Amino acid sequence: MSKRIFFLTVFILANFAAGGFGETFRIHKTVMVEMPESGPITVQAGINDALAITLPEDTTFFQGVELDIKIPDVLSRYYGSVAYSLYTGLTPIPTADAINYTGTREMIDTIPGRLSLNLVIPLIEPNTIRKNPYSIILPPVYNLNSSFLFFRFQLVMKGIPEDYEKESFTVTVKPVYIDKGRMELNALYPIGEDGQPLEHPYTVFVDEELANLENQRIILGTGTHYISIVSDFYRNETRTFTIEPGKTTRVDVELRDIAPTLQFVVPDNTIIYLDEQEIPHTNESFVISQGEHSVRLIVGDYETVKTIHAVNGRSYVINLSLDVEVTETL
Q1: Which of 45, 82, 268, 306 meets the CB 3.0–4.6 Å disulfide criterion with 111?
Q2: Which of 153, 161, 145, 133 has its CA nearest to residue 74?
Q3: Can you tell me whether residue 85 is helix, strand or coil?
């Protein structure tokens, strides 16, 4: 056995033997990582630095934290020269200025002789973290109530050229989500004649099941879903939306008054009478009362009259088109 391998074996065994007990140690620098609720964050850490990773307030969809570590080329040639470890019960609480700590080392292993290392730290048990040949799942020593995760690098082999100790790791920290997300309903009430919103009760169904929304939100599995809004005061509305892991999908629904609406699609020079009252020409739909209405349209010398029996919840379109037919004869 070479001196290098012998030294590493003795060192690792000694450290594992010390695991689970309080240990006082010094690092070069504490890298503070404020982890966002979504998306990764990338930091630099040296051979004798530590990462103090603070979880966000909303960890509803978290099941772990992934560390994607880019290993400097020069360090990959010194296999087993640097170790990484997890600590709990640290005092003092990590800050950017702290370098002396006491805590319990929960695990330790060495950086492999390659250019990257992917680690996953579980936060819930059981979990659905996918195992693959490219990732290492570390022991579940933290949970969603942990104040922070403490990940330490340390040099464990003597004889490395002094310049190599100045090398740093690029560490990308990102959340590992459960296969769920959140739907947020943004229901927009119609505006009444007095300029105030017409607020009435409605019922929400998601995937044809009655949904109990809390603050207009509901947690759903990933994939495509359907939302339906049913009311005696508004028209029924249906929308399709997609839930992504750990994300909030907002669904905007503009509620429409149940009163019938009327729309004219007519030439610009058309004179329009509704119930014998001339109205401005518009291509936009507008609300009319329920019941019978008369419509008279005048274009030049052409005039036509129609009668509409308006019913709540229905929309009516009056389409007038004038066409010229050309016939060729021999």
Answers
A1: 82
A2: 161
A3: strand
pLDDT in tens, the chain (330 residues): 344 444 444 444 444 444 456 899 999 999 999 998 888 999 999 999 999 999 999 999 999 999 999 999 888 888 888 999 999 999 999 999 999 999 999 999 999 989 999 999 999 999 999 888 889 999 999 999 999 999 999 998 877 777 777 889 999 999 999 999 999 999 999 988 788 999 999 999 999 999 999 999 999 999 999 999 999 999 999 999 999 999 999 999 999 888 888 999 998 889 999 999 999 988 888 888 889 999 999 998 889 999 999 888 888 999 987 766 676 766
pTM: 0.73
- Tell how strand 248-254 and strand 180-188 pair up: parallel
Q: What are phi and psi of 80, to 5 degrees?
A: 80, 15
Residues 246 and 179: their CA atoms lie apart, in Å, by 7
In whole angstroms, what is the distance from residue 201 CA to residue 193 CA? Answer: 19
